[in-house]
Amino acid sequence: QVQLVESGGGLVQPGGSLRLSCAASGIALDYHTIGWFRQAPGKEREGVSCIRTSTTYYADSVKGRFTISRDFAKNTVYLQMDSLNPEDTANYYCASTWRRACQPRLRTADFTSWGQGTQVTVSS
User: Fold this and answer.
1) How far, in whole angstroms, is CA 52 from its chain's centroid?
2) Are β-strands 10-12 and 118-122 bridged in parallel, bridged antiparallel, or unpaired?
3) Terminal CA-CA length for the chain
4) Using an 8 Å Cβ cutoff, are 93 and 44 in contact?
5) What is the pLDDT of residue 115?
6) CB neighbours of 2 closer than 8 A, spacing ≥ 6?
7) Which residue among 10, 24, 25, 124 sits deepest, i.e. has the most Cβ atoms within 10 Å of its Cβ?
């Protein structure tokens, strides 16, 4: 049984940083694409970043500010978020799939397992 647990969200001032964690169990990170999505109130869930083997992808809105990485020993994927702005405020979810490579235009329908989400609020 796949389980994904996000943590690390919180309230941060504009320009600040947060690191989100996605602890995975029941899967091997080597063989799955892990994606980060976010959903703001009243908006659709959007793909932010993904990673699989050495391939990573970032949406244009976060490129140069967010960095995705993995710790195989902990079976955990991280999303380092720097230079945060109020438009980054959302509930952030990690998700996994074995049947899709990490590539642009992340679609929620391609991911089979989801975490419960962690709230990120950027506000002064």
Assistant:
1) 13
2) parallel
3) 40
4) no
5) 97
6) 24, 25, 26, 27, 96, 112, 113
7) 24
* HSE (side-chain half, CA atoms, 13 Å) at 61: 13
Question: What radius of gyration do the chain's Cα atoms show?
Answer: 13
Long-range contacts of 107-112 (CB under 8 A, 24+ apart): 107/47, 108/37, 108/45, 108/47, 111/33, 111/35, 111/37, 112/2
In this predicted structure, what is the pLDDT of residue 74?
95
**What stretches in the chain show pLDDT beneath 70?**
none
Residue 4 structure tokens: 């994904």
